[in-house]
Design goal:
The protein is an all-alpha fold. The chain is 71% helix and 1% strand. It is built from 16 helices and two strands. α4 packs antiparallel against α6, α6 runs antiparallel to α7 and α12 packs across α15. The radius of gyration is 20 Å and the shape is globular. The protein starts with 11 loop residues before the first helix and ends with a helix.
Length: 323
């Protein structure tokens, strides 16, 4: 499997600077929040989202270096992503994230909620200071989309009538919106054409959807060690993702198990077996590959460069996580 970090060579130095800046941006005025933020930013993670922003920035600024505003956009993107993870972990009552304890399990729920709010607030402040209204609008929309996706997921738990379209919409809000809008924002800071900025948006949108679909497949095929959380946790909590939705079309008894919320002993194990015995995982892989291919097609407008090639390779990386 290709590692994400090996694809980031055009922006390797940029990412090192980003890691240093993130902790500095949080500041030390609030010791507990600063400790939580420092823990978060030091807890690993592949920095995929800011890497895509930086690669987009370099791919659209071939004749000159990227600006401090491009760098700040990448930092804002990682802040928003990290803030959303802190809140998600509280909602999901998750004890582990990326193989390390979550903020609320280390501190408590109150600190975790405040830490997430603090990071969202910091991101909004630095966003406003970019002095670009269109970019502010794009990233503000992301901050609205993230809880929208969480709410949609929450109100459709154990709902076997959810459609694939509704699943993809929720996946856009939860995952793809940030990548799509920050990719477009990077292009706007580079003064690309309106048409090119829409292509950058759609690269991020389809890349994000492919990434989420792959994540949802791994919930059935990965181990707790590789996932950094318990396997099949989505299904157990009633979050029906692509493999389950496809499996429901050919395994009628799966609906019975889900609708009674796996109340009887062995229900969850039986449901997992039904999904693995169906075409659900295969069809989900095909859906992820479809979105990955669409993402690549939206890079055709950009001139050839090392950064554009890295963005194309990022779509292969998404799919390679399955193998």
């Amino acid at each position: 499997m290709t590692s994400a970090t090996s694809l980031f060579s055009p922006v390797e130095a940029d990412l090192r600077l980003l890691s240093e800046n993130l902790i500095q941006l949080v500041g030390t005025r609030h010791p507990i929040l600063s400790a939580a933020a420092e823990y978060l930013f030091g807890a690993g993670g592949k920095r995929v989202r800011p890497a895509i922003v930086l690669l987009m920035s370099r791919a659209t600024m071939l004749d000159e270096d990227i600006t401090p505003r491009h760098r700040r956009l990448a930092e804002i993107t990682e802040m928003i992503h990290t803030a959303s993870l802190v809140h998600d972990d509280v909602v999901d009552e998750a004890q582990m994230r990326r193989g390390v304890p979550t903020v609320h399990s280390l501190f408590d729920n109150r600190v975790a909620i405040l830490a997430g709010d603090f990071l969202f607030g910091q991101a909004a402040w630095y966003l406003a200071n970019l002095d670009n209204l269109e970019v502010v609008k794009l990233l503000s929309k992301v901050i609205m989309d993230l809880p929208t996706g969480e709410i949609q997921q929450g109100v459709t738990r154990f709902d076997t009538s959810i459609t694939l379209e509704a699943y993809l919409e929720k996946s856009y809000y939860k995952t793809a919106s940030l990548i799509a809008n920050s990719s477009k924002a990077a292009g706007l800071l580079s003064d690309v054409s309106r048409e090119t900025s829409e292509h950058l948006y759609n690269y991020g949108r389809h890349w994000g959807l492919a990434f989420q679909i792959v994540d949802d497949i791994l919930d059935f095929t990965g181990s707790a060690d590789t996932l950094g959380k318990p396997a099949s946790s989505d299904l157990k909590s009633g979050n029906l993702t692509a493999p389950a939705l496809f499996a429901l079309e050919e395994k009628p008894y799966l609906e019975v198990l889900i609708e009674r919320k796996f109340a009887q002993e062995g229900d969850l194990e039986q449901a997992i077996a039904l999904i693995q015995d169906s075409q659900g995982i295969k069809r989900s892989r095909e859906l992820a590959a479809h979105h990955a291919q669409l993402a690549v097609e939206h890079l055709a407008d950009l001139p050839p460069s090392e950064s554009r090639q890295a963005l194309m390779n990022m779509t292969d990386y998404v799919l390679s996580r399955l193998y």
